[in-house]
Amino acid sequence: MSRYVPQRKIYLALFHKYYTRAKKDINMPSEETSLADRVEELRAELTQTDTRQIATQTGATYKSNGDGTANLHLTIWGKEAFVSDQDYIAKDLKTNAPLDFLTQAFLAYYFHDPKGSPPEDGWISFTELPSGQFYNSAFQGYTSKELLRHFESDYQNFREAAQKIGGVPVPFAAAAYKIQVFPRVAVLVACWEGDEEFPPSYRILFNSGIAHHLPTEVCAILGEVVTKRLLKD
């Protein structure tokens, strides 16, 4: 992947701005129109794509409606959801309510250009993503540093917060929790305990195959979203 182009920087800034204002309403404030338009463009292109192929490449389950249309079923943030191939708007399987806009945006990217790689074991840092080193300082600023500022040496609080947002314990570092966002996108929140010489350390890591499914700038915002969820809980 090439370095960030200006258009991607604009979308990245809009992701940041949106997160600070939007909650669970799919309606967008007027100043976020550009991002909303981009998501609509992705969805429009998806409606012209082979739905079965998307399912195969993203780990979703294809289900025909018997009338020429189909739904894609998948787990999002640990909850069952579905997407119609007529509009690609993700909805909760139980309530039929649309998911929050940021998740919709993440999913539009996830579906739009998957490379079809199988799930991969292992975790990578943000710097190991394509062009990640160019944005790593800022990424660590709103993820790792924020986690350290909030939790400090309160490791039990960290564990409880990770579990509240659906984190599954993983044998890694002093404490680590896997958060499954989409079938082939996962984030690991990890903690290394401090000692007399070194302070505690917190990191956001990604499953090793994530670059096959999301561009680096979207991974950056995903890391921030996970961080904010941890701090909220």
Task: Give structural notes.
This protein is α+β, with helices and mostly antiparallel strands. Helices cover 39% and strands 20% of the residues. It is built from eight helices and nine strands. The protein has helices spanning 6-21, 33-46, 51-58, 101-112, 136-142, 144-151, 155-164, 216-232; strands spanning 61-64, 70-76, 79-84, 90-92, 123-124, 168-169, 175-182, 185-192, 201-207. The strands form two sheets. It has a five-stranded antiparallel beta sheet. A hairpin with an 8-residue loop joins strand 8 and strand 9. The protein is elongated, with a radius of gyration of 18 Å. The protein starts with 5 loop residues before the first helix and ends with a helix. Mean pLDDT is 86; it is low at 1-8 and 18-32.
What is the topological layout?
Elements: H1 6-21, H2 33-46, H3 51-58, E1 61-64, E2 70-76, E3 79-84, E4 90-92, H4 101-112, E5 123-124, H5 136-142, H6 144-151, H7 155-164, E6 168-169, E7 175-182, E8 185-192, E9 201-207, H8 216-232
Antiparallel strand pairs: 1-2, 2-3, 3-4, 5-9, 6-7, 7-8, 8-9
**CATH T-level topology of the largest domain:** TATA-Binding Protein
Structural class: alpha+beta
> Which word captures the global form?
elongated
Number of helices: 8
The domain count comes to: 2
What is the class of the largest domain in the CATH system?
Alpha Beta
What proportion strand?
Answer: 15-25%
Strand order of the biggest β-sheet: 5-9-8-7-6
